[in-house]
Amino acid sequence: MSEPSDLTEDGFLGGRLRLRQPKSGHRAGHDAMLLAAATAARPGDRVADFGAGVGAAGLALARRVAGVDLMLLEIDAGLAELARGNAALNQLSAAVFVLDVEAGATAFAEAGLFPDSVDAVLMNPPFNDAARHRGSPDAGRRLAHVAARSTLEGWVHAARRILKSGGELTLIWRADAIAEVLEALDRGFGGLVILPVHPQPGLPAIRVLVRASKGGRAPLSLLPGLMLRDEAGTETLKAAAALRGEALPLSAT
Q1: How far apart are CA 92 and CA 17, in angstroms?
Q2: What is the CATH number of the domain that holds 127?
Q3: What's the predicted TM-score (pTM) here?
């Protein structure tokens, strides 16, 4: 467990969510809040956050959608303990598991995550290719950011296993590696909706938010891009609303 002096307490969703997190290493930011905003859920839904870290995305979703049955999965025991504390700090209910997403069906079942038992999965997997990206000397940051070639496929496979038929997976990924997402989701998922995220108009997308349905058959839909800032560098109204905790609908209609 980190000492208090090694932590910061930061505000998200316009101050409606407080998160204690390490000063160094991987820290929650815009990606987690955008992922939460893009995830569809209803009260009573069973929702699993893969690679939850200190709980940022899952807890942000729980703040927006009251009454979700939230499970936070994190491989790092120290971050999992912080996630448990952050749930209590924000008076939100969440079950926290120290679990490797790629551990397999038996480990998931021991945590009560059986096949075809979950309504929604959200994930922000490590997405920097180790062959192209020099990993951070900080072990926690490196674990959170640098992926093996099989990482995305393994995480998607785990989501496919525990999702109910028609359940939805929502993820955030590097825009320049969208082909990897399409390949991973080609088995068992359909109805993909993709939202590119751009830093400003005229600049290439840096992230993609993707929602897919287990067993879905609808054609892929590519939405108009979300601009984080306008030409003057001011945060756009749509981005600001998502970062305050409003839903960011990923809909083909």
Answers
A1: 10
A2: 3.40.50.150
A3: 0.90
